[in-house]
Amino acid sequence: MSWFNVDDDDDAPYGEYADHEVRARPNPKANRPRTKRRPEHSDAVIGMVTAVDRGRYTALVPATPAVKGGPKALPERVVVAARARELRKTAIVIGDRVQLVGDVSGTEGSLARIVSVEDRATVLRRSADDSDRVERIMVANAEQMLIVVAAANPEPRVRLVDRYLVAAYDAGIQPLICLTKIDLADPEPFLENFAALEVPVFRSAPGAWEDDSTEGVLSQIRETLAGKTTVFVGHSGVGKSTLINALVPEADRATGHVNEVTGRGRHTSSSSVALSAPTPGAAGGDTGWVIDTPGVRSFGLGHVTSDGILRGFTDLIPLLDACPRGCTHTDEAPDCELDLAIADGRLDALGARRVESLRRLLK
Ligand SMILES: Nc1nc2c(ncn2[C@@H]2O[C@H](COP(=O)(O)OP(=O)(O)OP(=O)(O)O)[C@@H](O)[C@H]2O)c(=O)[nH]1
Ligand SMILES: [Zn+2]
């Protein structure tokens, strides 16, 4: 099975566990869940978590070879698992690589046990709002973030994109921007806001897909997704599901569906899920992973330090070297180089808008 689709936890679409333990770690890019090293499970297999649903985790386990005198060979399979007791307080999220023991056959009705979570390459977090210092882990091990934003309906908001960018840079994830609904409005004025950043941009509308042509935006996006794990984020209604359905035809994200593993039918728009995104034409099936997340209105950054926020403004960073020592770069900061650069024209009107964006987030 190359893809599957299982609902997330309805009540906690970003994972059930506040991430107190991880926040204390000094390096936000390479932190690991604080799991005590348990006795080795030499028989454990590794799987990737693709869905979380009320204490049940779905993991994709690659084919395992036969062991002499031991278990038989097994093909790639979907395994449903519960967490081991000792992992009660550990966040397990989509994208996590986990060690599974017990019945890892993936046969209908079987239940394996997750006994540990592997170190994470990246952790994408979000807090409820900026005053909320308790963040949730949304996704583990994403390498790219595709920020989906509509040219119109809903109106694009610079501030929300700024927030996604900050969250991505803070997590060490490469951001990408996809403007949808370019048939409804000219996307360029909005995109100018981000022109100074070296962020790849895609422009999408069903008329621009031209699936068969290499120039079509879908082909461009597929190429970028190949072999990578990419989390899709965006405000509700921007066309994220439409895009995912076009990229991963089996995804069926727009309509409700029956959960293949649990048999429960539920609407998908509140759930996160990982879908494999095969790249047509790529030799050897250069599969990427698309992680869909529920559309959000706001994206809290209460957990990000001001240094983390600055990382989202790569275009302004070179100026800051000339700031007075300890400069906070806010409106009130005396002699901030950002103000001097606006005054003497090194930053144009667009640059001044970037400074405003930064300062709103630094508040
Ligand atoms: N004109 C136009 N409409 C689009 C485009 N993409 C999506 N839509 C429409 O926009 C509406 C919302 O699209 P969805 O794909 O459901 O949006 P979503 O971002 O997944 O929204 P949530 O499920 O709430 O997160 C639907 O009616 C789509 O048909 C586009 O490129 N152009
Ligand atoms: Zn400054």
UniProtKB/TrEMBL annotation:
Residues 1-13 have a biased composition (Acidic residues). CDD domains: YjeQ_EngC. Residues 131-299 form the CP-type G domain. It is found in: Cytoplasm. Belongs to the TRAFAC class YlqF/YawG GTPase family. RsgA subfamily. GO terms for biological process: ribosomal small subunit biogenesis. One of its GO terms (cellular component) is cytoplasm. Its cofactor is Zn(2+). The gene is rsgA. It holds the Pfam family RsgA_GTPase. Binds 1 zinc ion per subunit. Zn(2+) binds at C323, C327, H329, C336. Coiled coil: none annotated. This is Small ribosomal subunit biogenesis GTPase RsgA. Keywords: Cytoplasm, GTP-binding, Hydrolase, Metal-binding, Nucleotide-binding, Ribosome biogenesis, RNA-binding, rRNA-binding, Zinc.
